[in-house]
Specification:
By secondary structure, the protein is an alpha/beta fold. It has four helices and four strands. It has a two-stranded parallel sheet. Strands 3-4 form a two-stranded parallel ribbon.
Length: 117
């Protein structure tokens, strides 16, 4: 797993992250690779089309909702990260790596797009 420092989004030093992903894939093609973004962002923003990225990851936690200054802010609706990734091609699995509450496994399931109002 490629891991961004908390203050370093994927678009900063993106070439370094890409080279790391490519290198990991070349050295060990048998393991899944993803990018662990910082709070309230998602790997698909920067790396969805990279051939080494096997699944997307997002963090719905680690930042307050009012700190979510991304153009497509998700607010409290963590399922919107999943929907955004699902709408991309090719479709890849997606995982919330750092949720906002301990009950997130249940909350994410029930908050999914199929149940959204």
């Amino acid at each position: 797993m490629l891991r961004a420092r908390p203050e370093l989004p994927g678009d900063r030093e993106a070439d370094v992250w890409r080279k790391m992903g490519q290198t990991f894939r070349e050295i060990d093609p048998g393991h899944l690779i993803t990018f662990h973004p910082f709070g309230r962002t998602q790997s698909s923003t920067w790396f969805h089309n990279e051939p080494w990225l096997d699944f997307n990851m997002f963090q719905s936690g680690h930042r307050r909702y009012d700190q979510d200054t991304e153009p497509q802010a998700k607010g409290e609706d963590n399922w919107r990260y999943i929907q955004a990734c699902y709408n991309l091609q090719p479709i890849k699995p997606v995982l919330d790596a750092a949720a906002t509450a301990p009950f997130v496994a249940s909350a994410t399931f029930w908050a999914g797009p199929r149940n959204a109002g």
